[in-house]
Write a structure and sequence with these properties.
homodimer; alpha/beta; Rossmann fold; Pantoate--beta-alanine Ligase, Chain: A,domain 2; six-stranded parallel β-sheet; three-stranded antiparallel β-sheet; 10 helices; globular
Amino acid sequence: MRVTGTIEEVRQWMAPPRAAGQRIGLVPTMGALHVGHVSLIEEAVKRCEVVVVSLFVNPTQFGPEEDFNKYPRPFEEDLAICQRHGVDVVFTPSPSEMYPRENLTWVNVTGITEPLCGRSRPGHFRGVTTVCTKLFNIVGPDVAFFGQKDAQQATVIRRMVADLNMPLEIVVCPTFRQGDGLAVSSRNQYLSAQQRKDATAIYKALQEGRRMIEAGAVDPILVCERVEAVIRRVPAMQIEYVSLVDPETLQPVQRLDGAVLIAVAARLGPARLIDNILVDSRSS
Amino acid sequence: MRVTGTIEEVRQWMAPPRAAGQRIGLVPTMGALHVGHVSLIEEAVKRCEVVVVSLFVNPTQFGPEEDFNKYPRPFEEDLAICQRHGVDVVFTPSPSEMYPRENLTWVNVTGITEPLCGRSRPGHFRGVTTVCTKLFNIVGPDVAFFGQKDAQQATVIRRMVADLNMPLEIVVCPTFRQGDGLAVSSRNQYLSAQQRKDATAIYKALQEGRRMIEAGAVDPILVCERVEAVIRRVPAMQIEYVSLVDPETLQPVQRLDGAVLIAVAARLGPARLIDNILVDSRSS
């Protein structure tokens, strides 16, 4: 496994496999790797001949009040995980390598970045789409891997790739959950033991929503209210949104008669937690 | 020479030369090719093993009141010019091939797109940078060629490529001028015979600016006033701007002690004309 912090070197290393027609996979991460990331890496190793993992806590996707400084950076552990799972190249640039001068150029996906997390995190998706564009241009992958846990991010990235004709495939892998259903996230480590238990309310609530839809509910407002009620049983949980939206447009659905994404964001102590499930109400 | 209107086909055609390590050059144009474009094509043929010319009147870079509909589209003549000058592939997509659905994703260069032409053409550069990103992603060139006549566009594209780590080189070729100094432009054909004569005032004025700087002028305001005065000798000419700016930042210079771009935009009858010269005031 080779590790570099420079754009020039990662470009040099990618040239021979590209010229040889080998399939290059990229797993873009902010580090603090967990089993969710590992499932992305394993999928990449399965599908690609060369696997690159980027570790970069991207400053431009954090708001001024957000957790950029305290975001975990367990560098050595991350490298060990990559090594263990067959990663070929780790790209771990510094902020100044990625943004060597004032960044004037932004990739901006409009519309679908406004609801859900876009409402409370202005500029977040602009940072994500810009840094992903940069990583795609630096590494030149044939395929890049994202997690369904960040459902809006996955939809936004897919739309960006389609709109801008980026020459790569986007693969979205299922959310990885703990035994009690909590979606694995680097931010879970901000939680105390009690908060960690309370956090399971989110997945319980999502499952309750799924049950209602599968039992034939057609009114998204009723489902939404029930999901919120389950989360509210934990008094410490502050709901940011519970939304039933179209998985492509991310606009609220008026009636449950097709694929629907139930998406939740909530604050619990120091952590902002998000989760979602995709339900096909036609199959109910 | 091969001609296609589909993204899929141009991608297929580019794969073998790319795999063979051949250098691919792209000349992005809106068609209505003239000797200025030909100089770009010749430079591309000189430097690259495969030359692609795109002919696409890009709707997203025109304002609602601008000349999108009347912009000349002499398709057969354009193909003949490409053929004659050794172009390998002409990519001539329809608007619906390039924008098959509502376009949600924009590449936006901030700051340097605001002065000069940005002031009177809001959204213009956003359209240019977005379509160039799409063309770069479709063709995958090693190098793309632009004209110095559109100085702000060239600076904006260069900055976009640097900021987003796009894996290609940008070559900017000198402005091509008629014998009387008028910068060649597709929009010159909107001019009547009298207007065509009057239009030469712009280059005369730019040369007057150069003479002042080479004679030691240090105050950009004085130079600006003289340039404007020369243009105003043609009563029909409506000046949009005359600016002395830093060639990289496009911000007005306070004192003439380095490289400076003298940039002009003016309306003359049905045409909006732009021109510029680069002067190094240190060499005076």
